[in-house]
Design brief:
The structure is a homodimer of 395-residue chains.
Chain A lengths: L4 H9 L1 H17 L5 E2 L11 H12 L15 H15 L8 E4 L1 H13 L5 E6 L4 H8 L3 E6 L8 H7 L4 E7 L11 H18 L4 E5 L22 E6 L12 E5 L6 H14 L7 H8 L9 H16 L12 E2 L8 H9 L3 E2 L1 E2 L9 E4 L4 H17 L4
Parallel strand pairs in A: 1-10, 3-4, 3-5, 5-6, 6-7
Antiparallel strand pairs in A: 2-8, 7-8, 9-12, 11-12
Helix pairs in contact in A: 4-10, 5-6, 5-9, 7-8, 11-13
GO molecular function, one term (chains A, B): pyridoxal phosphate binding
Pfam family, one (chains A, B): Aminotran_1_2
Protein name (chains A, B): Aminotransferase class I and II
Amino acid sequence: MGISNKIEENLKRASWIRAMFEEGERLRKIYGPEKVYDFTLGNPNVEPPAVFKEELKRLADNPIPGMHRYMSNAGYPEVRKAVADVLAEESGLPVNENHVVMTVGAGGALNVVLKTLLDPGDEVIILSPYFVEYKFYVDNHGGVCKEVPTLENFQINTEAIAQAVTAKTKAIIINSPNNPTGVIYPEESLSALDKVLSAKEEELGTDIYVISDEPYAKICYDGIKVPNVFKYIRKSIIVTSHSKDLALPGERIGYLAVSPKVPKVDLVMEGMTFANRILGFVNAPALMQRLVTKLQRERVDIADYEEKRNILYENLTALGFEMVKPQGAFYLFPKSPIPDDIAFIKAAQKHNILLVPGSGFGKPGYFRISYCIDKQIILNSLPAFKQLAAEFSLG
Amino acid sequence: MGISNKIEENLKRASWIRAMFEEGERLRKIYGPEKVYDFTLGNPNVEPPAVFKEELKRLADNPIPGMHRYMSNAGYPEVRKAVADVLAEESGLPVNENHVVMTVGAGGALNVVLKTLLDPGDEVIILSPYFVEYKFYVDNHGGVCKEVPTLENFQINTEAIAQAVTAKTKAIIINSPNNPTGVIYPEESLSALDKVLSAKEEELGTDIYVISDEPYAKICYDGIKVPNVFKYIRKSIIVTSHSKDLALPGERIGYLAVSPKVPKVDLVMEGMTFANRILGFVNAPALMQRLVTKLQRERVDIADYEEKRNILYENLTALGFEMVKPQGAFYLFPKSPIPDDIAFIKAAQKHNILLVPGSGFGKPGYFRISYCIDKQIILNSLPAFKQLAAEFSLG
């Protein structure tokens, strides 16, 4: 009767997140939005780069006949070539437009990749703390998630991954710069992961794909550059979007790219294009495909993000909160002063500070701060954090 | 090893469609595009209405801060209200923005609806001839398709539907104006369907939803108006897109709307919004949502389509081809002069006429003509159709 049992169960479980959101709305009505310190959302408050707006104006003023029609399910060849050119340059590999499918954001890309790869019961390794949507995406396509914890500093634990691999392991999802921790995996980690997986493939006679979810790849600080995964991992697939680097999350524009080193890559790409069609995406939005074609080397101004990271990292550390200094994305993932992270975020709410508990990322005992919000709100929040730290006898 | 078995099998089966597409490309290279009569694609060759272009220009010239950010997974309240207002007016029911979710086209909407409704093994009735994507969409979410043939005139066979309903039947998909036949279901048929399904629900103690896929609802001729399904069917869900009525297929903008008469409609809408998120759509493209808000009562010029329908219907009927005169969409679905429709479309190819066999829609012995192409190509094709008819001794 009624809707799917699984969906109904998930709605019940999701209700505490909604309760928290509603509490935020309630607080904003009482205290005003500038006095509620909402660190819960990953919705960038910046605008797209000026060149995006110029391109949009240029196209609106000079519409091209047929520019809103269907194109190949993989997307326009020009935009796929523009994506491939940058990937070829970064990886040193012969990436071309046939290795790229334009998608409805990274969320769309992940679903297309998982639909293409998974047989029922296939296992996908995810690293905790993880982006909670991964579990839904894997389940959508009949897969089973295997959670493997990262190290204390949130870096990849290759040994633990090796132990988790079975004959049913089809893929592992990595996310660097990471949501929720902000850490970036260095080249050596990627190479070590490739080595471990190759040995396991040899042992088990299987294929194990590394799905690298990289929407924050251009949001990195301290002069660090995120390594190109194609260079270090043979069976790698990049999924990403322009939600963060061009600040277009509502427009649902992203892509997937498969390393030319992947065996039978033509068949894999045919599968991806077909999956993009039958999942109902059909193609990435046409106008946005055109708009991002020339913007593959652009990004939003990240100096603002870096300043916010610094303010929060320095102040919270000084108050006694413990955390790994993030090198990218726009998140901090400090330790909760008490093991019960849900109790802690409820306490923070009393100071008008809204946080997401680590439990929401498969990592109880931590909490996530998302700092893609106005600097002034962050500055306003510091006295409240001080009171919160005092309440938990930190410092 | 490698990609999913199911995807690989589907790619093999899809190869004859690709072979036909490649044959078309080959013919175009030899004879020139104006001498190849390609009736295979449902990609409208018209441009969006002028008011769409003006809206796009206005927004590009006056960007609203935050207009590319995430919004609620259901979409902007304003556009949902604009959709709901028209539906309320057409149905006479209290439809409001909470009954609408903006989606990535009708393909996205159908996947969201099926994900929300289906438990594994649930049955979905589809009416042959049917849009082939329905089978993939139902399978994506663990459902099982039950095919029920329509009547000789392609209208709903309510008795056959009643016989096909089991305790596992969760939904039936109807499509009016229909792809591939162009027929429109009149009010009486919808009422009769509701009656039959209500009786079955009563008998079996189940819920059976009618999913009405209506992307062609505004493409109808002879002064006919497509009846609003909410008015005649209690548990009805509309899925549609602006791909055809505003000629925006590449932009992936559509919606789903649930009748306010559906029991527990709030829970159903919560499920739909959640499914839109976890399937990776997240939300319908932001800019397109804004653009279609004021265009809910607009449509492309259909006089052109009607003229093309008339030219083809009259000429092909005169040549001896048998077909139901379509009242909407931009398709004709004539009987193949020989039972083997694949052999017939291969024969047509020799006259540079490209058609889709009825087998592709679960209805062998017929073929589909899609006439959303240049009028001149249609006129050029008539002598070739004459030769083809002579070859099969028609007329």
